[in-house]
Structure formats: structure tokens, C-alpha cells
Write a structure and sequence with these properties.
The complex is a heterodimer of chains A (944) and B (290). Chain A is of the alpha/beta class. Chain A has six domains: 6-37, no CATH class; 61-103, no CATH class; 113-184 and 421-558 and 566-620, 3-Layer(aba) Sandwich (Rossmann fold), CATH 3.40.50.740; 186-416, Dimethylsulfoxide Reductase, domain 2 (3-Layer(aba) Sandwich); 710-744, no CATH class; 775-943, Barwin-like endoglucanases. Chain A has 26 helices and 47 strands. In chain A, the strands form 16 sheets. Chain A has a seven-stranded mixed beta sheet with strand order 7-6-27-26-23-8-9. In chain A, helix 5 (163-172) runs parallel beside helix 19 (583-596), helix 6 packs across helix 12 and helix 8 (284-298) runs antiparallel to helix 10 (345-352). Chain A is globular, with a radius of gyration of 27 Å. Chain B has 290 residues and is of the alpha+beta class. Chain B has a single domain (10-289), classed as Alpha-Beta Plaits (2-Layer Sandwich). Helices cover 25% and strands 15% of the residues of chain B. Chain B contains ten helices and ten strands. In chain B, the strands form four sheets. Chain B has a four-stranded mixed beta sheet. In chain B, a hairpin with a 2-residue loop joins strand 2 (115-122) and strand 3. The longest helix of chain B is centred in the first third of the chain and has 14 residues, at 59-72. Chain B starts with 9 loop residues before the first helix and ends with a strand. In chain B, 53% of the residues are buried. The chains are: A alpha/beta (944), B alpha+beta (290). At the A-B interface, strand 2, strand 5, helix 2, helix 7 and helix 25 of A face helix 2, helix 5, strand 2, strand 3 and strand 6 of B.
Chain lengths: 944, 290
Amino acid sequence: MKKVNDKNISRRNFLKIGGASTVGIATLGMLGTGFEGVSAAKAKRYLDEKSKTVYTACAMCPSECSLSVNVNDGVISTIYGNDFSPYNSGTACAKGASGLQMAYNVNRIKYPMIRVGERGEGKFKRVSWEEATNFITDKLIKIKKEHGPESVIMNAGDVTDRDPYWYLFRAFGTPHTVEHGAICDTPRRHGPKLMFGGKRIEPDVMRPVLVRQPDGSLKNDYSYKNRLIIYAGWNPFTATRINYESRGTVEAKLNGAKIVVIDPAFSNTATKADKWLPIRPGTDPDLFAAMLRYILENNKDDDTFYQYIDWSFLKISNGWPEFFEEFKSFWNKKDPINGLNYFSIEWAAKRTGLEAKDITELSHMFGSTKPASLVWGMNGIGHHYNGYIASILGTALNVITGNMDVRGGAIDTELVKSDKGGKVKGDDFNKREVTKIINGIEVTGEQEKLHMDLYGKWPAGWDDVVGDYPDRFLNGVKLNYGPFKGHEYPIKAFLIRTGNPVITGSNTSTWTEALTAKEGNDYKVDLVVYIDTPFLETGLYADVILPEASYLERMSLADIYPSHQLIYLRDAVIDKLYESKTHYEIMMALAKKLYEKGDTDIKPKDFWELFPTEESFWDEALKKSPGRAHAGKPLPYPNLPVNYKLYGTPESLENGNVSIDHKKKEVVGKYLTVQWLRDHHGVAIWPMSWNRMQDGGVLKTDTKKIEFIWDFEINKDGKLQRKGCYSKANKLIEESNITPPSIQKLGWNKYPSTFYWFETNWNSFTNPNYEKYKDEYPFQLVNGRIHHAMSGTQMIDWLGRISAEDLWVPLNDKMVVDEMIIGENGPMPTNRKIHLDKHTWSIAVIQMNYSDGKNLGLETGDLIEMTNPLGGSTRGKVNLVQTIRPGVLRIPFGGGGRFSPGMGLTYAFKDITPDANSLVDPNNHSPIMGQPAYIDVLVKIKKV
Amino acid sequence: MKKDNKKPERREFLKKASKVSLATIASALLPMSVMGLANEEEISISTSEPIDKSGSVDELKNRMREDIKRAMKKPIDERRWGMVIDLRKCVGCNGCTIACITENKLPPGMAYRPVLTETHGTYPNVSRRFIPRPCLQCDNPPCTEVCPVNATWKRKDGIITIDYDQCIGCRYCITACPYSARSFDSGFFYNDFAGGEKQPYEKLPSPEYNENRVREEGSSPIGNVRKCTFCLHRVEKGELPACVLTCMGRATYFGDLNDSKSLVSELAGNPNVMRLKEELGTSPKVFYLT
């Protein structure tokens, strides 16, 4: 190993090339005295035959863009967008282009390792895969025998190609198979879930879209019809979850759309807005409620200028009168915190901190401008305790104004994206009958009903409640609902793959305490396994570490949110590096071990006999594609029946090479396969249409209508049937007579059947319970996802040298860093010194309004400490700017306090960069889904 | 001193070089044939097979590819490569910065195309714009004139190039460029900042100037001044520059300004066009739409 020795370094004079730091790129220059002339003799001609291009899907962030990766001589050379995919239309962001520095990162996990010190100490030894998988499966078998398989959690984390792990662990017998979606912005998605069975409302700005023409041909449509796009707490330019919203938003604007951004910070998205409304954090429901009230009170059906409501929504919905009555019942009530009538403009102005005239104007503009879309996001609404209400109101606003699924309006992308997965998710295993002895009585039920959250404390969740895991680790599970009511079991194994809950899963110290808690001499959670490519903080607490091949070395399918059905392949671009294995291989390795050790739930016919190759596994997943109801205008396939589910390749459906099952209402063409995708630049595209919610269409609610009520009865063939999104949970509550503690706090005994209202926590402006903190804790602290600086990618050199949105800036001091890297035995010092010049490396900072800073005698770069009323604290440097609302501080999520040596240079700044989750109230789980309220935080500050 | 469109004679070069420093003699004595960059006509030949992009969904990119193909059929002195950057569409993602780094195999800390951020106003009346800044390929480049060894000049198609074998690393041109578009390659590798061993991707040859140099200690381009070339090596194969290819806001356009049918000519003719530091008379070929 070649060393960069001190002598070498000291010979170098560092000088900054003029203006470098001012342009936001941290540039290092060297006045070399050792310049030895030039030698072109070493120049090599490069052989074209050694290069290839592979189409694949990114996984540097959940946007998962379609990529075209160029490989030279077995080495990834460049990463560009795939020109054949309309999702990103050939584009790729800084992070996507940086992917090769993830694959080749010196800090990636190279070998399996087993812990040799205490949890958290970071002491490991390299072992063989044989040893590692033996260790894991021995423990799993023991835990299963002593406590049952439900004592095991498989959290497949932050990347969406989690199916192999779900398949294995559902087969093993646990219903606790989790993904990132459980812990990110669930309140944001609640409204569409309740009302459509959907998830994510996005503007109709993905272009091109493939559209059936009047002459029968299919053509790419590049036109933008949007007239108004409102983004609330949603910053697609920086938190690039939906790639096409970058080019789509600016293009829609140039084509005549107005853009409004509602956000306490002047985000990159706000830079392109016609109007920026710097709202007070946590008051989005207040703004949306005032907009809805204004629209309802001022709508005039006979005056086109005030014809806000498109009443045709009544034909495709249920329960509007009930919703309206409940909403209206607040209008004459007075808010105890300000004495004003709920949902009035004045009330909203007082609470949101916006001008009354701006709220009126926004309401009128949204009502009268069509097509429009109201879109809200994870940065704001997704991470507040009361985000559900904003999500419900926002969904209602899009529906009643006639903007859902119209050209240029709003699209619930969850409903129209291609399906995938099917059998390989392991749903069938979850339906198996299992028997438990509870209080001496033998009880039988489906495996999924052992779920700790859905039959425990959170019956209305639709995913797991990851933020609440520390409590389960410490106190175990008691089921309150369903056949296994009264069943108690501990959590003994936690397997985490591509996730980092110690930093991102609610309060950091709550997580580390739970993972290190002991019972006698043993850890309470007997087995912690960390599977990933980078080595993040949670890895420090693992007993076993498995190196998973990076996304550029494995196969799976992209999980994306386009405007219509579209899917692409994630393909292995290069050979696996070091001793890493793909998720398919890890699944099979663990399955074989379990089988050999006598686990009868693992059957060869479900594993290696059924899926002998990685490709066969993903071919099975593709059988479900596109899997959506054939609906909308212009009808995608005029010759195929409406509202039937379609399966198969675009060409087989186009050519009518299909079989039609009228009973199941299914049209099956030629199944899509990995090879078909490879033959088509990695991408399958089915046609776009609009008005897909008419006549049921793509809606996934019980009644195939938009539902404004969530627990109701219908009369079907003389029988009363209970329907609605909350009905199942309410039935469980009624049967069991136990109210979930989270809604008990709201004074409810079950989930409301229509519109509801409650205040957010830790907000001294809107919740009377917290008014007392106003003077001592004057700042609201929010965090935003900053693309370049998310949890798992800060070890990338290129991203460390660019800045982003006042939150990730080169405010570092000149320093000499003692290098640590992830070696074969875990984190270890290399005895090398890394020299960093001042202002050359971006770090997480605290964004603060300039006038706030001046009032406190602060300058940009000063180190401050933020403390919350619970005593939690974290430190960071302030960045005084004009781009944030006074009284609000903002930091990047997962950006600071990073104490894993696997974070590269970011690790060196762990003591002067803020960890957002050290300030999150560990018990502030949002009441319905249990999402941690990451941005309901009050702090006071002091200079360090 | 004006020497655009003309590669300096070796004799003239030697004369110049001898005046400068001892270190340059070594390079001067190298036979021309191993200097990598041969004459510009050679690298202008439209190489390799046509890149099949039929089925590509981006109509603007497809159009720009056609523009390039048309231009490449003309003699080099009839082409005038230019770029249009629509600031209304730049979303500040820095994708171009990184794509360019990977394409040209740049060392740590060097960027040919940073994105500048310009913020005005006081809360709540603030505005911000992002300004990607490649080499502006000036028609009257202040950088070439100051070169003591004629290592940098304007090609017949308007691209300012650097001959790494002739460049002595004096960095006068860096000072002369009013846009900070030139950087000095100080010899850092990524292993200086992590790991101690060269990364696989930094051992790959850089396609710059079609020279396919592998960057190694003691040889060019280390010790040279470097800059954006509009990815000539891509363009002359009919492909788009890396920054145009990757742009998330679809804000960057490229083509032949001497072709009235090209997309860049059409866009550069807009009334909302501006160029950076127009008053200096450098006449950049990067046009910004505002």
C-alpha cells in the first residue's frame, strides 16, 4: 500500500486558485516545486473494444433514475442518464454521476466481519462467508426455537429492491419485513391512501409521455399544459425524489405555469417560484384548511372567475357531505390560542405567519386556475406530527377543484406506476396458518397477524413503525388485536440492510441505548446484522456485518413514481468487488444454511429449485408488470377491454398477442422479462392516459370511488358490509376493546370516519400545551433532505466539494485529519494524514436568518449549541443568510454528527456538525402511522 | 500577438521555450510524434461508428445530435461551436460539474464547469440564480495571448485548446482569464484524500483531445493548466458534451453557431441573451438566457 507520507505533503504549498471558494466548488491547487516536466510518452491509446455501455438503475437516492453506465476495461468510467427512459430523459444529477465513487469507495465494506468488542466500539474481525452465515443462522434457529420467528425483524432499509430479503424472512416465519417507506414521510402519503388507495400526488410534468393519437399511432407528447403548480414543503430540485420534476417544473413555467413554493427556507425549488411563501413550520394544515374554507365559501357556480369547484367529482366519490359537514363544524369554533375562528383567513395568517392577503390570493388562484396541482412533500408535511391533516386537505383540494388526473393537473403516481414483485415479495408465506399457545390456549391465525405494529400499538399503519423499534427492543411486544391478542414476545434479532436507523430512525441515543441494552450478560437484542455497501453508524452496533454488492454490481428493478406505467432494469454493470455478494446470493446463502440446520420453513422448492438464477427471481417479479387497470383517455389500447388489468410487454399488448380472462378481468400478453428489458435499453414503456379515476379506473379504494369517509357501511345484495380505509382497524379496536395509545392521546377511541383535526406537538405558536416554551426556546428547528449530503453518501469526494442550499457548505477549518478507513477488520487508522485547506470541504451547517444571527452577536462560521426542552443538544456552525424565515433554523437531515469512520472526511467533522436526530423527541411519533415527527423541534441556542 | 487558427511552428516554439525555464527544455526536446496532440485536422476527423440513438426520448438532444452531425460534414473553419445555457432552467443540481469531472477524468478539487450561485436581496425578498460556468471559448481569448510557449490557442472551430506537452505550467493564462475558467493540475489524486491507493477510475485514460493520457506522477497533464474543451472528443464523434447530456433542468444546449438551423443559433438569437463580462470584449461563445 502506497503511503502519502508527511514529507511528501510538506513539500507542497497549498494555494487556493483565485475565486475558487466563492464559486462554491472547493478547489485545491498546488504550487509544486517538484514538477518534473512533461512526458507524453506515457500516454496510452485506448482500445474501443474494451469499453461497453450498460443500462441500469441508480440507487444513490430513491429517485432511482435510469442510467447509461460506461465501463472501460472493467472499470466504471462515466455515469449518464439513459436517453431511452422518459422518467429522467437522459439526465442525471451530481449524485447519480458520482456513483462510481460509491462503488470504488475505500470505505465500503469489503469482507464479512464479526464483532469482537462491545457493540458500538467498532471492533471487528474479518471472517469467511461460511463463518458469518453460520453465526447468523445458528442464532436465528435458536431464537426461532425459544421465542418464535416473530422475534426477528428484517429491515430491508433504504433501497427499494428489498424483495429477496422479504421473501426469505417471510418464509422463515416473521411478518416483520420492513422497508424505508415505513419511516419516511408516511403522514404525507396518508390523504391519498385514505381517499384513493394511493400514495404520492405529483404534478403532471413528466415529459415526454407516450400517448395514443387519434390516428391510432403512439407518439411522444412533449407539451406542458400546467397553469399552476404549488409545492408545499417539497423541494424536488434538491431532494431529488422525483427526477422529472426538475426539468418538468422549469419547463412548465416557461410554458405558462405559475409556480408557488411554500417553505420556511428559500429552497432551490423556491428560486424558480413566482411566489415564495415562507410559512411557519408545522402550520401547513392551517394554510390548506383556510384555502379549502375560502374555496367553499367563495365558490360561485355561475361566475367563471369564481367557479372554483368542479362538482363532477361527486360522481366519482363517496362521502363528501359528511366530510364537508365535519369540516364546516369548525368554522364557528374559536381557537384557544388566538381567539379566532378556525380555518378563517385571519386565523391562518396568525398561525402560519403569512400575510392574510397572500393566503386569500393563493386560495383564489388555486380555485380559479386550471389545470393546477397542489403538491406537498417530505421536508415539511411528511415529518410533522399533524402532517396527516395537511395531506388529507391537500388531496381534497385537488379533488374538488377537478385537478386529479387531468392533463396538466395532479397525478397520484402510486396508482399509475407499473406493478412488480408479486410472488417474490413473499406475501404467500405471510398468509400461512400458524399456531401459538396464548394463556394456555392454542390459537391459529395467519402469520401476518403476528405483526407487532399492525396488531400491536398501530393498527391503522400500513407499514412498520420503525421509529418505535427501540421501545420494542427494550420492552418487547404485546399484541392487542386479532387472533393472537395477548401474545407476548421479545424482539431478539434485528437485521438491517441499506438503512441507518441510528442516525435516521428517530432519536439517536434512544437507538444506541436500545441496541446496547443488556439482560444479564447478554444483549437484549441477541442478534444484530448489518448488510450494506457503505459502513454507516448502525454498523458499529452489529454483531455481524455482511458486504452487499453495490447497486452497480447487482440486479433488480427500479421503484419509481412516473406519470404512467414504466419500468426499468437494474443490471450488474461490473463484477462484484471484494467479497461482496448480491442480495439474491445472500438470500440463498442464508436459506441454504437454515435448511441444512433443519429449519422446515425453508424449502428447496421455494428457493434454489424455484429460482436457480438471479435472473429467474427478477423474471418472476416482472410477471406483475404493468398490472394496472386499463383506463383513461385517450385509452392506451383501444382494442383491449377497459378496466381490465394488463400484464405483459408493451409490444405484446400493442399487437394484441394476449389472452383475456373475463372472469378475473385480466389481459395477459407476453410476460416481461429481464432479457426483454436488456434488449430494449433496459426500459419498458406503456402508454399514458388521463382521467384514470373515472369509472373506478386505477382507484384502489374499497368502493372504487374517491372516499371522503373512511369507516362506513354499504348495502350489497341485502347485506351490510363495512368499508373504508380505517374500517379494518376500527373493527379490531371494537373487537378487542383496546384503544391504541397514540390516538388515546388525541382523545379518540377509534379512528375518525371523516375529516379530523389535531394540533402538532412542540409548536409554541399553534399548540397551547407548548406556549410556555416560546421565550426560552425561541427557535423552531427543521431539517431538509439535501441531496448531496444524505445519510449514506457523504464519503464521496465529489459531493464533499460542492455546496447545496446554504446547508452543505465549505465552512471547514484548515486541518490535518488522522485518516480512518474501513479495513478488513472494520474501522482502523491508516497512520496517514489528510490535509484539508480552509473552506474546501462542505459540511453540514445551521442555516439561520441573518437578522437573528446579528441580534445574537453571531457571525457565519461561529460554533453554536442547540438544546431542546428535553435536554438533547447538538452543535454546529451557523450560516447567516437571507434565505430563511426568522425564528427558524434549518439543518440537513443525516448531515452531521456522523460518528462512523466509514463516512470518510465527514467523520472528521462529527463534533462540529449537527445531528438532527439528537434533538427529536423519541416519544413524538405521529399518531396514526407512528412516523417520528422529525421536525417538530424547539431549541434555544448558545455560542460555544 | 495573435496566433489563432494556427498551430505554432516548432521552431518558434523552441525559441520561446528556451527563454522560459530549464524544466521546459525536456519537453521541447521530445519528438513531435509523441506529443500526443498531433495536428488538429487529425482529431477533427469524424471518427467511430454513428451512435445509434433512435428511440431516444429526448427530442432536443436528438436535434442537437443532428446539428453536430451536420456541422461535422463542413470543413473545420466553417464550424463555430457554441453553448447556450438557460438560467431560467438551471436548477442548481451540479450534475454537469460532476459529469464533466468523470468524463474528463479530473483530479480532486478541479472542476471545468462549476455552478456559481448568485443571491440577491434581503428576507423575504430574495432571489437566487445558478450560473454554470464552462470555458466560454471566447472569440477574443485573453488567455492565449499571454502564453509564453504558444501552448494554447484558438482552433479554427473556435475552441481554445491547450497542448499539454508544450504547456510549462506558468499559469499566466489562469491570471489572464477573466472567468476563472482555467485550473492548474497540481498533481493530487483521490488517494491523497482517502485510502492511499489510486482509485480505479483515476487510472483510466482521459479522452481529452483524443489523447487518452493516463494521468500519472511526473507527466502531463500534471503540472499543466487545464480547461473545458466543450468535450471536443465527444462532439467530433457526433455526441454531446457531458454537461449537455446530463443536465437535470435541460438547461444547456450545444451546437454550431454558424448554422442558422441549429438549436443553439435559434436560442442565441433570443432577445433575453446575455454573456458574461461582455464589456471586456472577449466575445464569449457561451450565451446565457435570462
